[in-house]
């Protein structure tokens, strides 16, 4: 009996050791652990290893501006143009006003061969964009919903109150809130449509021809190189219609690119 008890105790101890080791190993493969290890590799100048660890972090579901930003930096150090531009663009989507991301993204874009000037933005569009960019889409949505509720309450108060003076106050108040609601709703709708219609990608092909039509018998318009940001407009089998920052449009065939959004 004593031998059996000793054997059971030894068995339990072995199982405890195994489970504790497994627990430690599982704990070490969390996204946070991989991200921190990637930072260590980056600081040590081992950029290839840092990229591998950051990519594993993404695969485990940790999609953050910091991960994309660090991936952009690591690829920039290795002179990987398309990868660097791509990851900085992904980081900008999450933190569009971050100065470090904007600055390093500009450095990455300077590595690209194609010098493409953006179309000048008119004053009206600048004012419109500044109003839209005051808040994020989520905040505009909340704001629109709150205005709708306030309008409903004020309008119901106008209907149910008997005194003429109070009815006038509630009527004009509800009218003012309704106008604000319409403005807020139009901004929210505009942002939503822009997000749906504007699909951007980074070109990963070293060089690709741009054609006037989706066939190689058409006129060749110009050539693009890796790292160029493109807006995806349409697709036809293996062809993709694109637009670049200066407004030029055309068709590309069998090009390698990665979508940003």
Walkthrough of the structure:
A hairpin with a 2-residue loop joins strand 4 (229-236) and strand 5. Residues 19-27 have low confidence and may be disordered. This protein is of the alpha+beta class and 261 residues long. It is extended. 24% of the residues are buried. It contains nine helices and seven strands.
Would you summarize the structure shown here?
This protein has 261 residues and is α+β, with helices and mostly antiparallel strands. The protein is 61% helix and 14% strand.
Tags for this model:
261 residues; alpha+beta; Serine Threonine Protein Phosphatase 5, Tetratricopeptide repeat; SH3 type barrels; 3 domains; 9 helices; 14% strand; extended
Q: Biggest β-sheet, characterized? A: 5 strands, antiparallel
Mean pLDDT: 86
Provide the β-strand percentage band: 5-15%
CATH fourth-tier homologous superfamily of the largest domain: Tetratricopeptide repeat domain
Please estimate the helix content: 55-70%
Give the C-level CATH assignment of the largest domain: Mainly Alpha
Please write out the topology.
Layout: H1 2-28, H2 31-43, H3 47-59, H4 65-77, H5 81-94, H6 99-110, H7 123-132, H8 137-160, H9 164-197, E1 199-203, E2 207-211, E3 220-225, E4 229-236, E5 239-243, E6 249-253, E7 257-259
Antiparallel strand pairs: 1-4, 1-7, 2-3, 4-5, 5-6
Helix pairs in contact: 2-3, 3-4, 4-5, 4-6, 5-6, 8-9
